[in-house]
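Blinded run. Sample ID left blank on purpose so nobody reads anything into the name before looking at the predicted structure. Input follows.
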Amino acid sequence: MTTPTSSSRAEQVRERRRTHTAEPKKTAKPARAGIRGRKAAAPPPVVTRGNRAVMPTRPLRASRTRRMYEVSLGSPGAELRLPAMPTVRFSWRWVSGLFMLGLIAVLYLAWTLPTFQVRAAEISGLRRVSERDVNLVLGLADTPIFILQADVMQKNLMSAFPEFAGATVQLAWPNKVTVTVTERVPVLAWTAGGQTVWVDAQGMSFPVRGEGDATSLVVVEASGPPSAPAPPTDLSVESAWAQPFMSVDLVSAVLLINGFAPAEVTLLYDMEHGLGWRDPQGWQVYFGIDGSDMGQRLQVYQAIVAELTAQQITPALISVEHLHAPYYRMDQ
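Blinded prediction complete.
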């Protein structure tokens, strides 16, 4: 016989089973299924503790999709698949890089091409200086024209050649350099201490070059340097040759006195007595450094010579430096 307790337990079990069968089971769905079109949540940032520095990580770039090409061969079901070609995208970095390469190429060609290199300058106006000497000073052999400076070249020429009264330099593309010079014309040769320099009408001195003009110059034998000329007006000139060697008045006096001197005599210059010459009769005569009243000075000198000749006196020096106070000396 069944006890009430056991029967009641059996009924409770059956009732529980019927309840579970009647209710449908709920299945758990994944979190992605209910969310469409939403990106996965970013992983939480990494937090570190301590004093060590952590390098930040950069997200990986998505690889670019390569294009694939399929070519039909004209037969049903037959086709040819070509290799995938990478997609090339140009940016401003490409443009700047190409521009820089082009600029480097242009500079290299301009520096090395013979079209832009100067071989030698075209020079005009030379009389005694040779073109070779001028080109050596300029140093233009195989030099690119775009690095030349006309004013610097002109300054170098004026410093190297004191016989140049002026020089101009012109540059023309692609490789032409034209130099026009004006040479000084010497009028006298000044000899002192065994050295000779030429002097032009402006009192500028320069070295002796060539022998063509030497025979036509007035030669002056000096016991020392000439009287100090006026200070130069151009203080920017660095060459000592470019400064006046003597005054213009002294040059004019030398040329004037030379016209009154006897033929084939050498003019003299003394720092105390000035200009004169050595007379063929054996004495020295001086007229100072002022060429004015030269006609009257010469008449006074001729009168003194006539008087001394009549008295049979042979002086060592006759001075007409001062027109109204001439004198002679028996010794130097």
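Unblinding after everyone has recorded impressions. The two ends are 185 Å apart (CA to CA).
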